[in-house]
Each structure stands twice: as C-alpha cells, then as structure tokens.
Specification:
mainly alpha; 4 helices
C-alpha cells in the first residue's frame, strides 16, 4: 500500500501486481527461513539432546508444508523454492547449533 499510494503513485495495476509478486517472493523466502529459525529455537526449550537433528526435523517439516502448499496451489514448485528450502534447512541447523552451545 505504501508503494502504491506514497512511493510510486500512478502506475498501472499490472505494474503494482508485478511489484507485489517480486516483493512477495523475497519476503516469502526470507520470512520462511526466519520463521523456521524462530520455531526451531522455541522447540529447543523442550529438547535435552540432539539439537541439530531436531532443528533439521523442523526445517524438513517447514519445507514439506511449503512445497506441498505450492503443489496444491500452483500445481508445481517454482525454482525459488529451492533457495527457500535451502535457507530453511540452514535456519534449522543454525538453531540447533546455537541451542547446543548455550545448553
């Protein structure tokens, strides 16, 4: 809304839609990894061992949900989902490593 009514007023609806898709892709990839990290860190409170393995399980669940949702909604998996999945996996592993060092 800020882009449409403050930053770039007067563009066509197609231009706003394209901008929204580009921003959505970036925010979705980064947001998915961030959410995975936060959820995995929250889970670590209840885990006593195998922190990295639990972080990987959280990441794999997040990947399965996003890919499954993409297949159901888009009938395919965009290439950007590969990067998003890799970042989710890194986020899960990082959450596990941080928990193992602080515990």
């Amino acid at each position: 809304m800020i882009y449409r009514y403050v930053i770039a007023r007067g563009l066509t609806d197609v231009a706003y839609t394209e901008f929204g898709e580009q921003v959505g892709a970036i925010v979705g990839i980064a947001g998915g990894a961030l959410y995975t990290f936060i959820f995995a860190r929250f889970l670590m409170r209840y885990v006593t061992a195998g922190f990295v393995a639990h972080g990987i399980v959280v990441a794999l669940a997040a990947i399965a949900l996003s890919v499954g949702g993409s297949i159901a909604g888009h009938h395919g998996v965009p290439a950007a989902y590969l990067w998003a999945s890799a970042l989710k996996l890194v986020a899960g592993v990082l959450a596990g490593i941080l928990a193992s060092r602080s515990g």
